[in-house]
Give the backbone structure.
Amino acid sequence: MLDIRLIRENPDFVRERLATRGGGDEAQIEEVLRVDAERRKTQTELQRLQSERNRLSKEIGGKKSRGEATDDLESSVHKIGEQIIDLNASANGLDGQQKDLLLEIPNLPHESVPIGKDPSANRVVRSWGEKPRLTEPADHVALGAKLKLFNLERAAKLSGADFICFTDAGAKLERALINFMIDLHTREHGYIEISPPFLVRRVCMIGTSQLPKFEADMYGLEENQLFLAPTAEVQLTNLHRDEILRVADLPKKFVAHTPCFRREAGAAGRETRGIIRVHQFDKVELVKITTPEKSYQELESLTIDAERVLQLLGLHYRVVELCTGDLGFGSAKTYDLEVWSPGQDAYLEVSSCSNFEDFQARRMQLRFKNRDGENRFCHTLNGSGVALPRLFVALIENFQQPDGSVRIPENLQPYFGASEIR
RNA sequence: GGUGAGGUGGCUGAGUGGUUGAAAGCAGCGCUUUGCUAAAGCGCCGUAGCCCAAAAGGCUACCGAGGGUUCGAAUCCCUCCCUCACCGCCA
């Protein structure tokens, strides 16, 4: 959520920055400003009347204690009370309207983000490793079938299209990857491991900005007013919702392994081959809660923490800085990690590391007390470290052997318990 | 699911209709005393919004949330949420 004062004081700046996203969101600014002006006007009048009521009520209290008559006063206060009820209703309505509008406006891109309207303007900032030399590589669907690592037909039997059921060595490989990643982030990168609930309240989904705008992409349990979290970003970032943290306790760094649930509405046919885009997948997620001063350096280190996973597994990848038009709704700046997939002959996004600045913190009233004793909104960041099905795809495709087996990278062997799958 | 007890400032905790934004304590900040530390004394110390060009200043709201009663609500009533305890059910 943007700061209404920023919009009020620098509307042109806000419009200009929003326009770089190319989503037409700048059009909403005029409406917000209109409601804001109306709201303040109403509030000022309301407060004037409330002040008057308080003054007269006090007078009544005084007179009563002296045994004097108060009938005239009481009836005039009663009249003011009726006006207050009306005005209060308008003020509340305008307040809600303003908030609803603000919740639908995306974050402003950071000034360092390249301007562009689609992924073609994204910037590759670095890459690591090299593509493996493979002659006619099999893709993960073929490899998975041959080695019986997962079974999509049977997953469909259970849950429908676009679900995964890992089997045998495949299930074990997934579990090995999870443990490998969590150990790495907790032991070497200083993250605290969290095992959160998977169902979350609406207010959390609003806090991290999945809602209200993207409700169609979420699975919800209507009766219970709960949602299946689409990413552990929701749980980890909301852990301290409505709190005022001590600056000495920052940054907070959390890692969690959770399933993630996404309806992927409207995504049919896009990147859906095999297990690349599914409705439920596991992910190891990293979240940081920090201060405005530190958040950009924390974004760099968060990205590097995620990259370590791919490096230790020996997978070629590149880091892409998203342009303004490709940025997620709440993000001010994002680096995607894209791992090489020989089977797709393309890079696959396995992590998206973002700094939300105070966008989410403002929505969830997540603050810290600075050294001057003032309450300030925290900055929040998150990134996958990393998403499992695509990591799985990259792993088996990159390390496939001419004889159809898959070599397990050395760093993973202690977790997997074998050096190959055949 | 049932019954009961609760939800007050960063924390603990008073407060059952009229200067209560809220006693007291802790924590925090400033000053004094002090060789240093500790201790003591004094003072300050909630959040959000609005008015004002700004500062100064003023006003309003906020005691889980939302409604209601009243001239006036932390205090009375209703609904909901959450926490705790016990019972039931249960991995």
Notes: Residues 174 and 392 of chain A are 7 Å apart (CA to CA). Residues 40, 43-44, 46-48, 50-51, 53-54, 56-62, 64-65, 70, 73-78, 80-81, 244, 246, 369, 373, 375 of chain A lie near RNA strand B (CB under 10 Å from a C1'). Chain A is about 40% helix and 20% strand.
